[in-house]
Here is the input.
Amino acid sequence: MTFTVHQDAYPYAKPYSVTHMRSGQPIFDMQTKGGWFADTRLKETLVAHGLANSAQSSSSASAGFSSTGKLGALVLILLVLGGATILMRRRFRGDTA
Here is the structure.
C-alpha cells in the first residue's frame, strides 16, 4: 500500500525554514494533524542536495535544482521527515486512531 502526504516547504523563510502540511491527509491507519513546522536544519539539508543557497529573483524561474534526480531526493526527504513527525507525535501522545 502506498501513501502520499503533501507538504509545502519554505526553505528561505526567516528566521527558520518552515513546512506546512494540510490536516486530514490519510496515512497508515490515521490522518495527519497538519500545521506549520519550523526546522533549523531544513535549508542546510536541501542546499546539500542541490537547492540554491539563497532565493532567486522572480526573473529566474529555476527552482535551483540541476536535475530531476535531485528534486526527487528532495521530495523523498520531505516525505520521510513528514512521516517521522507523524509517527513520533502519535507515539508520544498515545493516540490510537
